[in-house]
Write the structure tokens for this entry.
Amino acid sequence: MIKASRIAHLTDARYFAAREVAYLGFNLEEGTEGYLDPMYMKAIREWVEGPKIVGEFSSAPIEVVRESASFFGLDAVQVSAAVHGDRLAHLGGLEVILQVEIGPNGLKIPAEALKGYAALVDVLLFEATSDTDVQELFASDPDFWYNLFRQKPSLLQANVPAEVWPELIREYHLAGLGLTGSEEEQVGVKSFDEIEEIFEILDGGR
């Protein structure tokens, strides 16, 4: 299972849809970096089939998240464990992806809190900061991370070499991984070489 996050243009959306990712995520929180006008999201949506459309929210009030899900006809929403964790019950009836940040020293929220949050969501997306060496971090306490990822289908978004992904997924029983969109080189033109390498390695490992 793969979630493509922060989609900002049709080129990314069509590429990831063709690659049959499970989720296409759009940052719909106005005033934040990478925000995409929901009207543009709806236009992009008309051109792709397959993936579930996810609205991504980092700090918006939970009521705004719920209203947006209804108004824009979202298939799922993504919210932050650190910000929204205590109010997840208010998203009942929606498919929820919970974004959980990992730093160099581990989880940025208490593991016990996450256990409670996990019961209220459908998917956990563990997003490692750019300065986090997840291979080293996981190896320091493999049982902890293995048990953490078992709570719900868990995706990992991290900066690791493409060839490392199959081993990480297999060893820690991850459900898959998260990838992110990026800017076009010019309208309709973009190189997907680095991401394509990940897909090719994953395809070879099936």
About this structure: The radius of gyration is 16 Å. Residues 193-204 form the longest helix (12 residues).
